[in-house]
Amino acid sequence: MRIRIVDAFTDRPFAGNPAGVLLLDAFPDDAWLQSVAVEVNHAETAFAHPLPAGGEADWALRWFTPGTEVDMCGHATLATAHVLHSTGTTRGPVRFATRSGVLVATPHDDGSLTLDFPTAPLTEEPAPAGLAEALGAQPLSVHDTGRAIGDLLVELPDEKTVRALAPDLKAVSAASERGIIATAPAEDPSQGYDFVSRCFFPGIGIDEDPVTGSAHTALAPFWARRLGRTRLTGLQASARTGLVRVELRGGRTLLTGSAVTVIEGELTA
């Protein structure tokens, strides 16, 4: 069967967030899916198979890290939609049945895709004991993103602080269910982005995620309130970097980005 590695939330190879993508006839047993994700060894590997016509979704979609199955993944959804459209397997919007409900990916003439995801709820709360020490930076505010994501969104003073983070990952894993989204306003919005972020998820085996679509379902409402706009662009300032264009629509958040297939081969196991 064909396996592809796709760089998501970027328009060039070797940037953005890489994801494995396999299109199947049906889902094999979970142990095999997990073994493939371990072998691929990227933040997520996506597995999808077509569903019968006439239902609420067109494809079933699941995501696995090297350590576990996850409830939501933006970049691997974008990568899967990219494969479906770039190979001519599907045209127009595609509906995915997932553990987070039906998620829709809509293609555009420029090759980008827009994902329609649920907006994460945000609840401000006191910083957990030891959080500043774990991050190596003093938070301005801390917000729980709810069970759908399971992260803490941590507001930091400025872009330089976010870029300079070198957290204690063991301590970070004790601070939240999945990990930490660290964010700050862009130092110079004329550079094409409104805010920056970095995401650390040691709790699910990902020390730092290069570009995190699901995190932007929390970043969108957070920065929309502060900046007074519902359309924004986020730069995830990992070593690979990536841009996510967001649009807040109440209970839904639209995530737009591009993707590039960098590896295609045959899985023989």
UniProtKB/TrEMBL annotation:
InterPro entries: Phenazine_PhzF-like (IPR003719). Keywords: Isomerase. Transmembrane segments: none annotated. It comes from the Bacteria. The keyword Transferase does not apply. The keyword Isomerase applies. NCBIfam families: PhzF_family. Belongs to the PhzF family. This is PhzF family phenazine biosynthesis protein. The lineage of its organism: Bacteria, Bacillati, Actinomycetota, Actinomycetes, Kitasatosporales.
